[in-house]
Amino acid sequence: MVLAATQSKADTTVNIKNPDSIDEIKNVIPPKVLKSKPLHEKVFKDSNSYMTEFLKDEHIQSIYNIFGVALFYIITYSISHDYFTHGRIYFGWLTIEAGFKGLPYAIACWFIMHLSAFLVYFGVSLWLKVNALSKKVIYKSCINTFFLAFYITTICASFALCALCCLHYNLRMGSALFILMESTRLVMKMHAFVRSTIGQTANPAPTVNSTIQLPGLQHYIYFLFAPVLIYRTSYPRTTTPIRWTFVWARSMEILAAVYYFIYFYERFIRPYYREFGVTTPHWSAVIECFYGMLMPSTLCLLLFVYMLLYSIQNLFAELLHFGDRRFFTNWWNVTNYRDYFIKWNCLVQDWLYEYIYKDCYSYLSSNRYVCSFLVVTISALVHELLIGLALQLFLPINYICFGILSYIIMFLPLRGRFGNVIVWLLIIFGVALQMSFYSMEAFAKMNCPKKLNDNLLDKLVPCIWTCIQNHRNSDK
């Protein structure tokens, strides 16, 4: 249950004297923050998901039913193919078993990650109590330095633990993505909690008077599992009972999306690229495979967005009575790339705006191009890191497409129907390009492993290049 605005007596408070004049506020807040244009604040309110509203329309329901019928025929095809080809029905189990290898280790790491999240809460609670008892500025500075070091160490150790778990236990893509995405989510939540709770009041000699209230542990636990990344002391809550038919429908959609991904891998990715590196790569075959991946990769993108931002988020929102369910807006109608980044994932976009863009705007530069570049760069680096650890390879295609090219395209003056067509052309091309290159690199890593030397450069050279060089040498 989310605590109300009035906190219990057990809550920790730190009282600071009320300001006597506006000059005292100016002494604390940087001058460029006062002069700059105020940035908008995220306001949470009761609202249904876009897809929930769309599914009330009979035309959208028909499209939804078509995907259900397509899944039925995919399942029956898989059953027939397995029976007549292998003599038994696998039902995608071999891919699931291989893709989620090492899942118990990932689950154990998940529990350790949540323990570190609790350490952050108790660390903030201790900071508030010690800070309230400290009177001298030098003591406050030492305390702030110590807790900042503790916080940074906890964040870095949490993510490093997940990375080492992926590499040491050789987790496959399903298990690796689970723990890496969960670790990223928890790190973002921990930073949101610390930044919102004590980030504005860590000045050792504050003159602005405010009262810091630390909500109870129950509210913090709710925040960790609620489908939200921005920390607030209260959120809109639904008062109606849990709709178990809604929960069941969302759960079935998650399973259906997973089976769709298995089907796409078994019927498109593996047949196209499993021989890459065994024979001499030819540009004609690479281009043919790329065009063969255009539609499957687009469907994978749509299903992934639907599963992650509708099915999973609404499932937890329903179970936790979370009211604000606008996890995405009408990103498919955008006419430029900037609106696409803003609308397609409101959860992550709101976090980046609240804790990266605003801080950059307030304390580094009020130039929106600089702030946008920092946001896009951090997001692209994290995406590249997750993909690289999940596949255990180094091929920065995602960073090139997302962190460099997308930032340039973001400021193109696109508008209207033409802009929407261009955006979709770029989205489909980028997704297919990334899926093709990562598939080639993953199978090249298996088919022609590198003979590594001691220098770092050899380890960073893509296996695709190694395969091409090996076949060139053998042809000579």
Name some characteristics of this structure.
mainly alpha, globular, two-stranded antiparallel sheet, 19 helices, 476 residues, disordered N terminus, single chain
Task: Provide a descriptive summary of the structure in words.
With 476 residues, the chain is mainly alpha-helical. It folds into two domains: 1-38 and 100-225, no CATH class; 48-91 and 236-476, no CATH class. Helix content is 69%, strand content 2%. It is built from 19 helices and two strands. Strands 1-2 form a two-stranded antiparallel sheet. Helix 6 packs parallel to helix 8. Mean pLDDT is 80; it is low at 1-36 and 204-210.
Q: Specify the overall morphology.
A: globular
Q: Provide the spatial order of strands within the biggest beta sheet.
A: 1-2
Task: Give the termini distance in whole angstroms.
Answer: 71 Å
Mean pLDDT: 80
Q: Summarize the amount of helix as a percent range.
A: 55-70%
Query: Residue ranges: pLDDT <50 for 5 or more in a row?
Result: 1-36, 204-210
Structural domain count: 2
Estimate the strand proportion.
under 5%
Main sheet summary: 2 strands, antiparallel
* Structural class designation: mainly alpha
Encode the helix/strand succession as letters. Answer: EHHHHHHHHEHHHHHHHHHHH
Let me know the number of strands: 2
Tally of helical runs: 19
If you compute it from the alpha carbons, what radius of gyration comes out, rounded to the nearest whole angstrom? 25 Å
